[in-house]
Structure prediction request, 461 residues.
Amino acid sequence: MKLLRFSSALMLAFLLLGIFSCQKDEDPQLEASMPASEFSADVPLQWYKLFEDIDRYAPGCRPPAAARALGYIGLAGYEAAVAGMPDYQSLSGHFTGLSLPAIEDGVRYHWPTAVNAAYHVMLQKLYPHIQADHLAKVANLNKSFEDKYTDQLPADVFSRSKVYGEAIANAVYSWSATDAAGHEAYLDAHPLSYVPPTGPGLWQPTTPDFTPALFPYWGGVRPFAMSQADLLAKPPLAWAEDPSSQIYNQAKETQIWVDKIRAGQDEEAHWIAEFWSDDFGGVTFTPPGRWIAIASQVVEKEQPSLETAVRLYAQMGMALCDAGVAIWKSKFHYNYERPIHFIRRNFDANWETIMNNPVTGVNSITPEFPAYPSGHSGFGGSAAVILTDIFGFNYAFTDNCHKNRTEFRGAPRSFNTFIDMAVENAYSRIPLGVHFRMDCDEGLRQGYLAGQRVLELPWEK
Prediction:
């Protein structure tokens, strides 16, 4: 009789164990939200890899607009997970006008689901005008993660996390809309209302197509971390055509370097110039998008946690955004002419840059905005500061961004530090023929400052 009671009890215990093991929401291990540090970086990595593809083709979203979008996308992803990051805090109290929803106390959240939802909403809202196949990719990536997590999670946890991430993104997007100078500026990237000033040494649209100015009012965009005093670059070299002047010698440097490349006398410089020339929509991503692609290569290599990844992409996005605001404000404040005009007046009336569009076949292009300071330099400097802060100074890295390109020499290049990468990126603009050395010097300085100011935000508790 005792044996029968024991056997019945044992069977009941096994039966109950089987029932409760199938009820995921009854597992004590699942009652509390796991910290974001316990999850992989797969969600942000896959979304930012998709961003690289979208960035290559999105109409109007060239350098500063892409950088601004990255700032808001990154902020939404960070805020969607920060409640699960015990050492970090929301930035909502730091940004005037940004009001974010809070999590419910005593219930479980799944941070990858929340982050996925936030990125999904932000890409839909910030890029509603992209090609149908890219919109489909946005929908499909979201669905792939949702299908994965609905299989893993109790229904209430999944739903709560998704709703929370969407609410965060909608709040961040609403805050973006209060920045009139930047929000949806991509819809009129070359406003015909802008008439560039005229005078000796001042920028005018350049050959061969004389494209009107790109985002001439971008200096009014709201930065994330830089003060108004930070935004304006130091004054450029005085314009002069005296052979003893500094700017004359810098123009001569640009001319000589390009002429050597054209004569086949400096293949290394030619490789460097093309390797960093992310200048053409439909060919490559934007310069800010290039640095996101570099960051994603590091994420793939290092496999950091979700916590580290959302912080990395948020800080990089904000730093890239602020670098773009500072540099475009300075460009249209000083309105310094491009080397091609100086060189043609003083050295060679038929001189051309080597910035050639491999898709359209248009050659000797110069970007459609003033020279000083350099945008490439600023974007690279800001990104290098963030990458260095997270992964360390002595981080050797090989950049495979253009490994399989055939339109130009995209063979990978290796570097000892991220700062080395930023410096090469900056000065690659001289042998390309589109910048003076001073443009690169000041662009780097402003980029470094943008990165530092973002790191000074109150991220940690």
The chain is about 55% helix and 0% strand.
